[in-house]
Amino acid sequence: MDSSGHVMGTRRGHVMLYALSTCIWCKKTRALLDRLGVDYHFTYLDLVEGREQEEAMAELERWNPQGSFPTIVIDGTRAVLGFDEARIRQALGL
C-alpha cells in the first residue's frame, strides 16, 4: 500500500485527504471520492515517517487540531472532518 499518492479524476480544486491506512472511515472516504471521480491527493499518516510525517501532521493539525481522521482539505481554504457524505459532496460542489 502506498503511503501517499495522487488519484486522477475530475478536478474540484486541490483536494488533500489525510488518513490512516487502518481507518474504516478513511477507506469509506477514499471509496466515495473514487466513486465521485474526484481528482485528489492522499497521505496515510501511519505509513509515512520522519520529516514527511511531521510535516503532514502539522498541516493536518492546522485544519483539525484534534488530529482526527479522515480530514479533507480543499484548496487550502476549507476542511471536512470525518466521513460525512453530504458535507463532502457540498464542499466539492457536487
Question: How would you explain this protein's 3D organization?
Answer:
With 94 residues, the protein is α+β, with helices and mostly antiparallel strands. The protein has a domain at 7-67: Glutaredoxin (3-Layer(aba) Sandwich). It is 36% helix and 23% strand. It is built from three helices and five strands. It has helices at 24-36, 50-63, 85-91; strands at residues 4-7, 15-19, 40-44, 71-74, 78-81. The chain has a five-stranded mixed β-sheet with strand order 1-3-2-4-5, with helices on both faces. The model has no long low-confidence stretch (mean pLDDT 95).
Shape: globular
What would you report as the Rg, rounded to the nearest angstrom?
12 Å
Q: Could you spell the SSE succession in H and E letters?
A: EEHEHEEH
Q: Unreliable runs, pLDDT <50, ≥5 residues? A: none
Query: Major sheet, described briefly?
Result: 5 strands, mixed
List keywords for this structure.
single chain, 3 helices, Glutaredoxin, alpha+beta, globular, 5 strands
Brief digest:
With 94 residues, the protein is of the alpha+beta class. It has helices at residues 24-36, 50-63, 85-91, and strands at 4-7, 15-19, 40-44, 71-74, 78-81.
